[in-house]
Specification:
The chain has 5 domains: about 5-135 and about 495-570, HUPs (Rossmann fold, 3-Layer(aba) Sandwich); about 225-415, Alpha-Beta Complex (Isoleucyl-tRNA Synthetase, domain 2); about 575-650, no CATH class; about 655-775, Isoleucyl-tRNA Synthetase, Domain 1, CATH 1.10.730; about 785-930, no CATH class. About 40% of the residues lie in helices and about 15% in strands. The chain contains 30 helices and 34 strands. The protein binds one RNA strand of 87 nucleotides through helix 7, strand 11, strand 15, helix 11 and helix 19.
RNA sequence: GCGGGGAUUGCCAAGCUUGGUCAAAGGCGCUGGGUUUAGGUCCCAGUACAUACUGUUUCGCAGGUUCGAAUCCUGCUCCCCGCACCA
C-alpha cells in the first residue's frame, strides 16, 4: 500500500473534526478523565518541546478514551505576556494583533499533528471574556483580605520595566530577561499566598508529583519551626529586639545580637553617637548592593558595633548589639541572636570582631565544655552552661527553652516561612488590568462588578517608555465609583501567572458568560488527572495554581483541593551541538568543523537542549512534511521515557519511519493469510492477550515508551514467529488486527484509522471503546509456555550447531536431542516444590538422601549436581519455568511435535528426540544436543 | 553549605522499590545469511571473552551481608539539577 501521510493524515484529522468525536460534555454515567498539558505561550512557531509535550498527552487522552472514559482534553493559549508587547515596541503594531497572528499559525501546526483536543473549549488568556474573571476573583480576594496593597521594597527589573514576584527572581536576576534585579520602594498589589503555606506544604502528600518538584516546592515554601525571642535594650526600656531562631536550645550561647543594617532600630540605637557614621556606611553598602552583588561580595562577614547592649531574656546579662551584612532584613524579624559556638556564620563573625564564644551544647557527654573550638558545632546536643537546663537534649532542649520564654513572656514558639506574599502588580500593558480606581477622597476603590471587565484600551503608544497604560487618557481618567469625582484608574496589570493559575478550571465551562464557571461542571471535571509540562514551572506556575485553587475553594466556588492529581514533567528535547572540552562550553552549530573560537582546540559534539542560540533546533514542520506526523510522534515517544531527556537523532527518526512503513503493510499481509486453523493459533491468540495486558498496565502508569515498544515493535515479532511456525489463519489474522489497531492508535492515530478502514470499519476508530482481547486463561499460559520451551531448545540447538561445525568435516545431517533423565527431572521438581513451600534450601540434602537414585555410588554425583547446578537453577527458573516443571512438561513431546519445524530451521535432515538414560549432559529444560 | 537525581555491556537506554526468569530487554550502529534486477525495505542470525555441553570476567570505585547482588548495606569518586549567608 502506498503510504502518503501528508495526504492521508489531514484527511483523518478532518474526519475527526467533522464527527466531533473529541468534544466532550459532562456525563455522570461515565468515569471522567481530565488530561491536560500546560497551555503554551503563543510564539510564532511550534517547537519540538511542544510536540513532545502534546504527543505524550494525546497518547494518554486517546488511550483513556478508548478505555471508556469521558475524557476532557482541551487546548488554549497563555496569550498575555511580555514577548508580544516587546515585539510591538520593537516592530510597531499592537500586541493583540501580534498575539492573534501567532495563535493562528501555531494552532495550524498543532492541528497538523492530529492531537485529539476539544477545540470548542479553546481559551485565550487575553480575551476579555476570560480576564474579566481574573478581575472578578481579584475583587473577591480583596473582600476577603487575601489581596491588598502595600508600599514596600519590591524587586524591579529595569529591562522589563516592571516589578517581579519573588519567585521570578533567580539568583538576583530576572527569570525572563536575566538582567539584574534591584530593590525599589513602591505601592503594589499582593496576594496572601502565605495564608496557605501550611496547606501548600501538606497538600503535597496527597498529590502525585515527581519528587524533585515536591522538593522544590518544599524549599520554596521554606517552613522552619523555631522561636521568636525578645531581647530587651539596656538604654531603651520601651523597645525590644525580636529575633527568630530555629535553635532556641542554643539561647544561653547567644553572646551578641545582630541586626540587618536596614533594621528600623539601628538608626535609633546609634543616633548621635560616634557609631553612627560606621553604621551608615555599612547600611548604604548593603542597600546599594543588589542581591546579585551580595552573592559575590558577601563571602565576607562584615559588621559594626552599634554601641548599645541588649538584655538576654533568660540570664538578664548584657550582650552587645551589632549590625551585620549577612542578616537579611526581609526574612524572619531581620534580626538574629548570635551563637558563635553553634552557628558557623556567627562563629566567623565573632572571631573577626573578637566577641566571646560560649559553648552550650555538647555533641557527646565526654566532651570538654570549656575547650577552645575551631568550628561551630551545629548538630543537636546536650545542654551545658545553660543554668537550670543543663543536661537536656535535642528537641526537648528546644521545648524547655520555649516554655521558659513563654512563661516569662519573652518569646514564643513560631513558624517562619520563606514564602512571601505574591506580588501581582506589573507595570506593563499586555496583562489583565487591576480593577481599581484611585480617588483622592475615597482612596483605592474597586470597580463595581457590573462594570467588569475593565478592558485594555487601544489608544496606546508602545514607545518603550514607562507603563503604556499611562499614555491612554481614556483609560486613566475616570470618575470615582463611590463619590463620582474625577479619579484615576489603576494602571498596573496582573502578573500573567494569574491567568495560568486557574485556566484549567475554566476549561470545564469555558463559554460561561455569567460566572467564571459552573460549580457542578467544575466539580465533575476537577481535578486534572494527568498534567504534563516542563519542569521549569515547578515553583512558579505550580505553586500559584495550587494556591489559587485552594482560594477558589474557600470562596465556595469549587470543591477541588488540588488542581493537579498527577504531574508528569517531560524531559528536554536535546540535539547535538559543538562542544569544547577544555573550555567546557557548548557552541552554536556554525562552529561545527572549525576550531574552538576561544582556545583553538578541536571541538567534539555533545547533546544540548535545542535552542535558537545554539542553532541546533529541528523544525517539526519539516519533519512532518518529510515523514508524517505519526512517524514524528512514534519517534518522540519511543526515543526516551517521557520524563527523561531525549536526544534528537535523524537516524533514529528514520528507523522509526521504517517501523511505520512496516506497520503500514501489516493489514495487507495479514489479510492475505489464506490458511485455516493450526496448532500455533492458540499461541498467537494467547500472546495477544498477554501483550494487551502488559500494554494497558504500562499505559496506566504513563510508561509510554514501553507501551509503544509493545504496540509498535513486539507484536510484529510475534507475528513473524507465528508465520515461521506455519500459522496463516485468516480468521485469526483479522481478529488480531482488530485488537491491535486499538493499541496502535494511542501513538499513531492516523495509521490506526488507515488500518481500521482496511478492516472495513464503517465508523472512526477514535470513536470506539476497546474491550481488549480478553483475559489470559490457564490454557493460554500453557500455550505460551510450550512455545517458550521450544524457543529455548531452538536457540540452544542453533548455538551448538555453530560450535559443532568447527569439528565436523561436512555439514551435519542429523540432530539428536536428549531430554533430561527422569531422576534429574524428579530432583528438579522436588527442589522447586521444596523451595516454593518455603523450605530452607540448605536443608534440602536431607530430602535428597531419601531418593532412591541417590543411594550407593550415585549419591556423590547427585549431591554434586544439586549443589553446583540445580540449586542455582531452582532460584533462577522463572515462575513460568517452574510451572513448566511442576505441571509435568513433556519435553520430548513438545520437541517431537515440532521436529519438522526444528529440522527446517536448523537445516538438518532429521531431528530425533528421546529421554536420556542414566548419565548425560542433559538437564531439565535444557536438553543435550548432538549433531552428526 | 542544604536538598533532589544520576553513574549499566560500542552508543542511547531498560532493570534496580519486592536480591535468584541478568551475560543483563529494546533501539541505534556493526557483521553474516536470505529476499530483491539493484539500492532500499523486510526476514533470520550474531555482536564481553572462551567453548560441541555450559566456564571466566562484567553493571562508577572499594568493602560488607547472603547459598546467591546490577539489585540490599557502608564508605569513596565523579556528573546533573534546584535553593542558598533563611538564622
Amino acid at each position: 500500500m502506498e503510504f502518503q501521510p501528508t495526504i492521508s493524515e489531514p484527511q483523518w484529522q478532518q474526519q475527526w473534526n467533522e464527527a466531533k468525536i473529541f468534544s466532550t460534555e459532562m456525563d455522570e454515567s461515565k468515569p471522567k478523565f481530565y488530561c491536560l498539558e500546560m497551555y503554551p505561550y503563543p510564539s510564532g512557531r511550534m517547537h519540538m518541546g511542544h510536540v513532545r509535550n502534546y504527543s505524550i498527552g494525546d497518547a494518554v487522552a486517546r488511550y483513556k478514551r478508548a478505555m471508556g472514559f469521558n475524557v476532557l482534553y482541551p487546548m488554549g493559549f497563555d496569550s498575555f505576556g511580555m514577548p508580544a508587547e516587546n515585539a510591538a515596541i520593537a516592530e510597531g503594531g499592537h500586541p493583540r494583533d501580534i498575539t492573534e497572528r501567532n495563535m493562528t499559525s501555531i494552532t495550524e501546526q498543532i492541528k497538523r499533528m492530529g492531537f485529539s483536543y476539544d477545540w470548542n473549549r479553546m481559551l485565550k488568556s487575553h480575551g476579555p471574556e476570560y480576564y474579566r474573571w481574573n478581575q472578578w476573583v481579584f475583587k473577591r480576594f480583596l473582600e476577603k483580605g487575601l489581596a491588598y496593597r502595600e508600599h514596600a521594597p519590591v524587586n524591579w527589573c529595569t529591562d522589563c520595566a516592571t516589578v517581579l514576584a519573588n519567585e521570578q527572581v533567580k539568583n538576583g536576576r530576572c527569570w525572563r530577561c536575566r538582567s539584574e534585579v534591584t530593590q525599589k520602594d513602591m505601592s503594589q498589589w499582593f496576594l496572601r499566598i502565605t495564608d496557605y503555606g501550611d496547606e501548600l506544604l501538606s497538600g503535597l502528600e496527597e498529590i502525585d508529583f515527581p519528587l524533585n518538584v515536591k522538593s522544590l516546592q518544599q524549599d520554596w515554601i521554606g517552613r522552619s519551626e523555631g522561636a521568636e525571642i525578645s531581647f530587651g535594650i539596656d538604654s531603651m526600656p520601651d523597645e525590644e529586639i525580636k529575633v527568630f531562631t530555629t535553635r532556641p536550645d542554643t539561647l544561653y550561647g547567644a553572646t551578641f545580637v545582630t541586626l540587618a543594617p536596614e533594621h528600623r532600630l539601628c538608626e535609633k540605637l546609634v543616633k548621635g553617637s560616634h557609631y553612627e557614621a560606621d553604621w551608615k556606611e555599612l547600611r548604604d553598602e548593603v542597600v546599594r548592593m543588589s542581591d546579585f552583588d551580595r552573592e559575590k561580595v558577601l563571602k565576607e562577614k562584615k559588621g559594626v558595633f552599634l554601641g548599645q547592649y541588649a538584655i538576654h531574656p533568660l540570664t538578664g546579662k548584657q550582650v552587645p548589639i551589632w549590625a551585620g551584612n549577612f542578616v537579611i532584613a526581609s526574612y524572619g524579624t531581620g534580626a538574629v541572636m548570635a551563637v558563635p559556638a553553634h552557628d558557623q556564620r556567627d562563629f566567623e563573625f565573632a572571631n573577626r570582631y573578637d566577641i566571646p564564644i560560649k559553648k552550650v551544647l555538647l555533641a557527646s557527654i565526654d566532651e570538654d565544655a570549656e575547650a577552645e573550638i575551631k568550628k561551630a558545632y551545629t548538630g543537636l546536643g546536650t545542654m551545658v552552661n545553660s543554668g537550670e537546663f543543663d543536661g537536656t537534649f535535642g528537641e526537648d532542649a528546644k521545648r524547655v527553652i520555649i516554655d521558659a520564654l513563654e512563661s516569662k513572656k519573652k518569646g514564643k514558639g513560631t513558624i517562619q516561612w520563606k514564602l512571601r506574599p505574591w506580588l501581582i502588580s506589573r507595570q506593563r500593558y499586555w496583562g489583565t488590568p487591576i480593577p481599581i480606581i484611585h480617588c483622592d477622597e475615597c482612596g483605592p476603590v474597586p470597580v463595581p462588578d457590573e462594570q467588569l471587565p475593565v478592558e485594555l484600551p487601544d489608544d496606546i503608544s508602545f514607545s518603550g517608555q514607562g507603563n503604556p497604560l499611562e499614555s491612554s487618557p481614556t483609560f486613566c481618567n475616570v470618575n470615582c465609583p463611590t463619590c463620582d469625582k474625577p479619579a484615576r484608574r489603576e494602571t498596573d496589570t496582573m502578573d500573567t501567572f494569574v491567568d495560568s493559575s486557574w485556566y484549567f478550571i475554566r476549561y470545564s465551562d469555558v463559554q460561561n458568560n455569567l460566572a467564571l464557571f459552573d460549580k457542578k461542571k467544575a466539580d465533575y471535571w476537577m481535578n486534572v488527572d494527568f498534567y504534563c509540562g516542563g519542569i521549569e514551572h515547578a515553583q512558579m506556575h505550580l505553586i500559584y495554581a495550587r494556591f489559587w485553587t485552594k482560594a477558589l475553594r474557600d470562596l465556595g466556588l469549587s470543591s477541588a483541593n488540588e488542581p493537579f492529581q498527577t504531574l508528569l514533567c517531560q524531559g528536554m528535547v536535546n540535539a547535538p551541538a559543538p562542544w569544547c572540552d577544555s573550555c567546557a562550553v557548548t557552541l552554536n552549530v556554525k562552529h561545527r568543523g572549525s576550531p574552538c573560537p576561544q582556545c583553538q582546540g578541536e571541538l567534539s559534539e555533545r547533546s544540548a537542549k535545542m535552542s535558537k542560540s545554539l542553532g541546533n533546533t529541528v523544525s517539526p514542520e519539516e519533519m512532518i512534511e518529510r515523514f508524517g506526523a505519526d512517524t514524528v510522534r512514534l519517534f518522540i515517544l519511543f526515543a526516551a521515557q517521557p520524563t527523561a531527556g531525549m536526544d534528537w537523532s535523524d537516524s533514529g527518526l528514520q528507523a522509526n519511519h521504517r517501523q511505520i512503513l512496516q506497520l503500514v503493510d501489516m493489514p495487507e499481509t495479514i489479510l492475505g493469510w489464506s490458511g485455516s486453523s493450526s496448532s500455533i493459533d492458540a499461541w498467537l491468540k494467547a500472546r495477544m492477550k498477554q501483550r494487551f495486558a502488559e500494554w494497558s498496565q504500562v499505559m496506566d502508569s504513563y510508561d509510554l515508551r514501553r507501551a509503544v515498544e509493545i504496540s509498535h515493535f513486539e507484536i510484529i515479532k510475534d507475528i513473524n514467529w507465528y508465520q515461521r511456525r506455519g500459522g496463516s489463519n485468516a480468521e485469526l489474522g483479522r481478529w488480531l488486527l482488530e485488537q491491535w489497531t486499538h493499541m496502535l492508535q494511542a501513538a499513531t492515530p492516523h495509521l490506526a484509522e488507515d488500518w481500521w478502514q482496511q478492516l472495513g470499519g464503517s465508523d472512526l476508530l477514535a470513536s470506539r471503546v476497546f474491550k481488549g482481547p480478553g483475559l489470559l486463561s490457564a490454557e493460554d499460559q500453557r500455550a505460551i509456555d510450550d512455545e517458550m520451551y521450544l524457543r529455548i531448545v531452538l536457540d540452544e540447538a542453533r548455538e551448538r550447531k555453530q560450535l559443532a561445525m568447527r569439528h565436523l568435516e561436512v555439514a551435519p545431517k542429523n540432530l539428536i536431542i536428549q531430554t533430561t533423565e527422569a531422576w534429574k527431572m524428579d530432583l528438579a521438581i522436588s527442589g522447586v516444590s521444596f523451595q516454593l513451600d518455603g523450605g530452607d534450601v540448605k536443608k534440602f540434602s536431607k530430602v535428597i538422601e531419601t531418593k532412591p537414585y541417590a543411594q550407593g555410588e550415585m549419591r556423590g554425583e547427585v549431591i554434586k549436581l544439586w549443589r553446583k547446578r540445580m540449586l542455582p537453577m531452582v532460584f533462577k527458573w522463572s515462575d513460568i519455568h517452574k510451572a513448566l516443571l511442576l505441571n509435568g512438561l513433556d519435553e520430548s513431546g513438545v520437541i517431537n511435535s515440532a521436529a519438522g519445524f526444528l529440522a527446517a530451521e536448523l537445516e538438518v535432515e532429521s531431528v530425533e528426540c528421546s529421554q536420556a538414560g542414566e548419565s548425560s549432559a542433559a538437564f531439565p529444560l535444557k536438553p543435550s544436543v548432538l549433531y552428526q
